[in-house]
Design a protein that fits this description.
Layout (H helix, E strand, L loop, with lengths): L7 H7 L8 E3 L3 E5 L2 E5 H7 E2 L9 H13 L8 E7 L6 E7 L1 H14 L4 E9 L2 H11 L5 H20 L17 H10 L9 H20 L5 H13 L11 H10 L3
Parallel strand pairs: 4-6, 5-7
Antiparallel strand pairs: 1-2, 2-3, 3-7, 5-6
Length: 263
Amino acid sequence: MSIENPFEEDLLSFDTTKELKLKHDELFGYNIYGNYHLVKFSQMNEFTNFTLKNRGIDNNHVNEIYTTLKLNKNLTMPPIELISVKIPDTEDYNHYIGNGQHRFLAYKKLYEAEKIDLNIMCIFHDVNNEEEMDNIIKIINSGKPVITMFNFKERNEFIEKIGSAYENIYSKSENHHLDKMNKIKLRDHLDNNKIFNGKNTSNEVFNKLIAFNNIVKKEFESKLKVNKERELFYKINETHKFFCVMLKDYTWVNKFKVYMNTV
């Protein structure tokens, strides 16, 4: 898919030293300069993924940006920083949002709700592996407090601990599943509830989660009267035994926070 470059004539007129090279790319839109690209949001939406490495989504912040853009579509916004991670043993890359998740989701809402497909400026960072991606994200977030980076690390380890202890708990789909969770949506709920506060480690929180999961199991075992609840309970028992998902739509995170504050 290609897009028209509204700046092409002006850019070419300034390209006297050949330092500025304008070249069309079928995936990334137009290369403006260096690793800066101009991309239609609809294009970016097709090839961009989210990563656990960033902070969770604040929907109020997304709505604030969306409202601002809706009122002023020509507003200059900072570029979205994308990280291209090489897929092992291939020549292909996966592309993740390194910085600008809230802007991306605001553009997405504008595109889906208002049918407005804006030109988005983005910066690409090319890396060879996940470790290099971690380093790039640390650099991007280096201006943020150390406590924030600590929370990111512990939260991600906590999410992985859940997956290791309760196999088959995660689904790649962001759509709601009665008996599964999505890592990205879980990340957002953990951050919105401030489960990690700069002091508690992933091990400490996970040990409390095991106890909380047993409490949830006993509560539902004692009141398996509704057929749907009974079927879901036995399905969870047969697959991963993470009974917290009986408390649907991630509401278990809210109740787990209350539990953490009482033990």
